[in-house]
Amino acid sequence: MNHLAAPALPNPSSISIGTDVFDLYLSEETIAERVLQLGQAIERDYAGKSPVFVGILNGAFIFLADLVRAVQTLDVEIDFYKLSSYGNRKISSGEIQCLKAVDMSLAGRDVIVVEDIVDSGLSLTYIRNEILKLQPQSVRFCALFFKEGVSQLEFKVDYVGFFIPKQFVIGYGLDVAQKKRNLRAVYKLREP
């Protein structure tokens, strides 16, 4: 028996943070099912290989943990980048700061970059450029969320959990002013 596992609790239909109200968007079960599907796709695509998963902190840490546990048949390694472009705001400043780069050598390796959400695509473009300098064998991208009609990416995100409209979402690693990452479900900001 896993003593660390919490009993399943129902996801509240909405939560309030200050004057903002967030409504349930994706349940814990819906997310878990999709993450398992992504893991199975990665297992098929990387059969016989040992990819390096590179998570983008802070937002992707929960998604990355569940994703690598869904990849049962591969030997994987994990490293991280930590970037900042939001600070405590709901809208990106447009300036990327690298607070932590990967520690391991990626030369000749198959790399899967794991991001929580693709918005403008600035962070992912920055990471792609940095990783390509390290001469990997291959680079693919996995995002839990992809905001439709917002991204300015000039390359493909290979694995996408959910395509969503342009809206502010929190939970399952996504934050508001560095808080609420620990919500098990994902909530969207209620429009006024």
Question: Total helix count?
Answer: 3
- Which bin fits the share of residues in helices? 10-25%
Instruction: Spell the H/E element sequence.
Output: EEHEHEEEHEEEE
> Which structural class do you get from the secondary structure elements?
alpha/beta
Q: Fill in the CATH topology.
A: Rossmann fold
Task: Spell out the blueprint of helices and strands.
Layout: E1 14-17, E2 20-26, H1 28-45, E3 52-57, H2 61-70, E4 77-84, E5 97-100, E6 110-118, H3 122-132, E7 138-147, E8 159-164, E9 169-170, E10 186-189
Parallel strand pairs: 3-4, 3-6, 6-7, 7-8
Antiparallel strand pairs: 1-2, 2-10, 4-5, 9-10
Helix pairs in contact: 1-2
Describe it.
The chain is an alpha/beta fold. The protein has one domain: Rossmann fold (3-Layer(aba) Sandwich). It is built from 3 helices and 10 strands; from the N terminus they run E-E-H-E-H-E-E-E-H-E-E-E-E. The chain has helices at residues 28-45, 61-70, 122-132; strands at residues 14-17, 20-26, 52-57, 77-84, 97-100, 110-118, 138-147, 159-164, 169-170, 186-189. The strands form 2 sheets. Strands 5-4-3-6-7-8 form a 6-stranded mixed sheet, with helices on both faces. Strands 1-2-10-9 form a 4-stranded antiparallel sheet. Helix 1 packs across helix 2 (61-70). The model has no long low-confidence stretch (mean pLDDT 89).
Task: Describe the structure using short key phrases.
10 strands, alpha/beta, four-stranded antiparallel beta sheet, Rossmann fold, 192 residues
